[in-house]
């Protein structure tokens, strides 16, 4: 492995180049900051969006019915915490920025009446469009360059260090402010688009002292064809389900049937030809599976499975304020990496709000990070002489002697055994959570003390060790929070507490590394109760 | 999972290795693409989408697919099928302007379908 290090300085460093990171980088650049964007994969193909094709929610200026409808229909599934005014602000900000995309030349489709339709962003087209815009605006992109740890100066975020996967070269960016845009965490469950989403940003931020909110609202499971990994759910609005014998299963009962070990089949038999054409031509990413393996999903039943998406498309994540600042000075967070409780309550964030949130949170964080960098660090020029400290621990700098048994693969598998089994995790129990947490606490200690890349490690080994540590940490914040909420609400399902308890209309904040803590916080005063 | 690189078509441009989000594909000393870490492939088809000459094939199965047969796939017209369906050509985006996804949203239950029908700008 090469030993050379690339040293860069910027007003704002963005970690992660999915849509939220791209919008943060664009906003910071447009506010006059110098910007570096470091991405584990390749900006344009990486993250949950490029393979997905995403629905986008926005408001239409002057159209009361459309605006109120967009906001109001979110309230019932949210089961509390949602703040109407906040939802509206997110969608309004999205409208402003899709207008920018129009000026930049995005080729929006038109519907039968000739109206432009902004409600769908085809993943790869959208992300390559953003990549080109980033380059045009002068953002420095580091592809295939995962961040491994934050740099801090007296407790203030001051940059990050990482590695380039292709060469093994190290990189270090000193910055006046840092934006975490690393997405959610899907625990390498096999969901297409989530392979790089291993909770790295959570771990980086937690090591600096950041906290989380709503990590119990991470029970996001999604249907995929039995041998596939694309978890697009929209087609099932036109679907019917049945078991092996053909006995119908209502849509909401499908997860429990699968968790009980029954085989479940789907068929999209409720789409008329106009809609079928819309599905096929609008979402070829879904139908390539059937095209290549044979079979017609609109006529033939096909077996399905559930895959865990964790905090991707869910509600919980890093706790941020109205400008997307975390509890660590100089550290901001955006998109799926953050809590989305004010936007979607306890419900899943995908299907429209999540993509809008990437645009709005990215824009707000990019602007706020630029202002912080200017004020506090006096811009990139003021950074040069500032003494900074790399603060990465588990997986990077073992606290004791590296233990050759603690490979990244073994640790990852051990976390997966706790968090991926459907029968224990779709609906959790207090006893199950406590037992899993005990094992995960032991795993954390062992990983913290002994997990390290092996001698003669490749860059892939270095990254894998850090990812494994992030997976353990994330599973613990999720389960510790899930243990404290003794009710069923939205994406948080307890077999031992099947009802919603109105007395638990409080947030659960969490954090900590060696000792994970959870505490209650009152909801935002405007929050709509369940 | 990524299954095939058709060397007779490949022009060794290196694009697939550049864009693969998961570091599955690399180029060897001669600039030819190789599958370096198949187990990391997330079945996203994006290498196919960016290949200028349809020289790759990704099976929709997320596990290794022993049924893949290059000659049969060529005969069935399945090499490059995803790229064609989307409307991309020579690694460049195309087809967004004819995306019919709005029909899915119109089909949602009232009044939501109504909201989508009128939500153009
Ligand atoms: C199947 C599917 C369908 C969806 N459909 C919709 C929809 O219709 N509507 C909707 O609103 N939402 C939808 N979503 C959700 C939406 O895709 C996400 O909300 C969105 O992609 C989040 O963007 P992000 O930028 O926050 O994170 P991501 O897109 O996940 O990007 C995070 C990026 O950070 C990078 N990264 C991770 N760790 C590091 C590190 N250590 N260093 C550097 N980079 C790192 C990753 O490589 C990745 O590129 C869908 C999701 C899925 C999975
Ligand atoms: S399908 Fe995706 S992950 Fe697999 S090799 Fe191609 S680009 Fe890489
Ligand atoms: S993108 Fe296609 S042509 Fe270029 S190297 Fe890869 S397989 Fe060969």
Task: Explain how this protein is built.
The complex is a heterodimer of chains A (530) and B (121). Chain A has helices spanning 19-30, 64-72, 75-78, 84-103, 123-137, 200-207, 254-259, 273-282, 284-293, 341-344, 353-377, 408-419, 422-425, 430-450, 459-484; strands at residues 5-15, 35-38, 54-55, 120-121, 140-142, 147-153, 156-163, 170-180, 212-213, 220-225, 240-243, 248-249, 264-267, 302-310, 317-318, 331-333, 389-390, 507-511, 517-521. Chain A is of the alpha+beta class. In chain A, strands 1, 2, 5, 6, 7, 8, 16 and 17 form an eight-stranded mixed β-sheet that branches. Chain A starts with a strand and ends in a 9-residue tail after the last strand. With 121 residues, chain B is of the alpha+beta class. Helices cover 27% and strands 11% of the residues of chain B. In chain B, strand 2 and strand 3 (33-35) form a beta hairpin. The longest helix of chain B has 6 residues, at 70-75. The model of chain B has no long low-confidence stretch (mean pLDDT 95). Classes of the chains: A alpha+beta (530), B alpha+beta (121). Chains A and B meet through helix 2, helix 4, helix 5, helix 8 and helix 9 of A and helix 2, helix 4, helix 5 and helix 6 of B. The complex binds flavin-adenine dinucleotide and iron/sulfur cluster (2 copies). One iron/sulfur cluster (SF4) binds next to helix 1 of chain B.
């Amino acid at each position: 492995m090469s030993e050379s290090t690339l040293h860069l300085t910027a007003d704002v460093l963005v970690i992660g180049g999915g849509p939220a990171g791209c919008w943060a980088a664009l906003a910071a650049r447009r506010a006059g900051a110098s910007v570096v964007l470091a991405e584990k994969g390749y900006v344009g193909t990486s993250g949950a969006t490029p393979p997905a094709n995403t629905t986008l929610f926005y408001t239409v200026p002057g159209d009361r019915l459309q605006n109120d409808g967009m906001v109001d229909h979110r309230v019932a599934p949210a089961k509390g915490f949602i703040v109407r005014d906040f939802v509206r602000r997110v969608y309004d900000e999205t409208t402003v920025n899709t207008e920018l995309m129009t000026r930049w030349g995005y080729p929006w489709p038109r519907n039968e009446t000739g109206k432009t339709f902004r409600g769908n962003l085809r993943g790869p087209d959208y992300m390559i469009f953003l990549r080109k815009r980033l380059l045009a605006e002068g953002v420095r992109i580091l592809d295939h360059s995962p961040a491994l740890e934050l740099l801090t100066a007296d407790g203030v975020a001051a940059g990050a260090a990482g590695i380039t996967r292709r060469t093994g070269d190290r990189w270090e960016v000193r910055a006046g402010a840092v934006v975490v845009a690393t997405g959610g965490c899907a625990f390498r469950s096999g969901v297409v688009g989530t392979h790089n989403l291993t909770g790295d940003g959570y771990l980086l931020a937690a090591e600096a002292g950041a906290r989380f909110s709503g990590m119990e609202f991470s029970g996001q499971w999604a249907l995929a064809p039995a041998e596939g990994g694309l978890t697009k759910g929209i087609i099932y609005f036109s679907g019917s389900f049945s078991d092996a014998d053909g006995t119908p299963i209502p849509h909401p009962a499908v997860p429990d049937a699968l968790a009980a070990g029954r085989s479940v089949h789907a068929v999209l038999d409720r789409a008329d030809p106009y809609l079928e054409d819309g599905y096929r031509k609008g979402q070829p990413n879904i139908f390539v599976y059937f095209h290549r393996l044979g079979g017609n999903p609109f006529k033939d039943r096909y077996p399905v499975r559930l895959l865990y998406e964790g905090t991707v498309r869910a509600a919980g994540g890093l706790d941020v304020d109205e400008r997307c600042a975390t509890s660590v000075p100089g550290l901001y967070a955006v998109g799926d990496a953050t809590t989305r409780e004010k936007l979607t309550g306890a419900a899943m964030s995908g299907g429209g709000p999540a993509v809008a949130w990437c645009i709005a949170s990215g824009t707000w964080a990019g602007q706020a990070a630029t202002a912080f960098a200017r004020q506090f660090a006096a811009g990139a020029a003021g950074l040069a002489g500032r003494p900074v400290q790399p603060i990465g621990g588990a997986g990077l700098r073992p606290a004791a002697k590296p233990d050759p048994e603690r490979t990244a693969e073994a640790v990852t598998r051990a976390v997966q055994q706790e968090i991926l089994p459907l029968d224990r995790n779709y609906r959790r129990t207090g006893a199950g959570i406590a037992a899993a947490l005990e094992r995960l606490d032991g795993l954390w200690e062992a990983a913290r003390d002994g997990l390290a890349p092996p001698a003669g490690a490749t860059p892939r080994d270095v990254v894998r060790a850090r990812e494994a540590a992030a997976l353990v940490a994330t599973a613990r914040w999720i389960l510790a929070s899930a243990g404290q909420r003794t009710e069923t609400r939205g994406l948080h399902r307890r077999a031992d507490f099947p009802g919603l308890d109105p007395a638990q209309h409080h947030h659960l904040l969490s954090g900590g590394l060696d000792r994970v803590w959870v505490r209650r916080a009152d909801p935002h005063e405007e929050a709509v109760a369940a | 999972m990524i299954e095939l690189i058709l060397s007779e078509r490949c022009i060794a441009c290196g694009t697939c290795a550049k864009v693969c989000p998961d570091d599955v594909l690399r180029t060897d000393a001669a600039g030819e693409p190789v599958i370096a870490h198949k187990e990391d492939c997330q079945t996203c088809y994006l290498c196919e989408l960016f290949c200028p000459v349809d020289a790759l094939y990704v099976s929709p199965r997320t596990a290794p697919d022993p049924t893949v047969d290059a000659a049969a796939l060529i005969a069935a017209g399945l090499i490059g099928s995803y790229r064609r369906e989307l409307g991309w050509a020579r690694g460049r985006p195309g087809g967004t302007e004819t995306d019919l996804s709005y029909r899915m949203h119109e089909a949602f239950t009232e009044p939501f379908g109504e909201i989508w029908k009128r939500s153009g700008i």
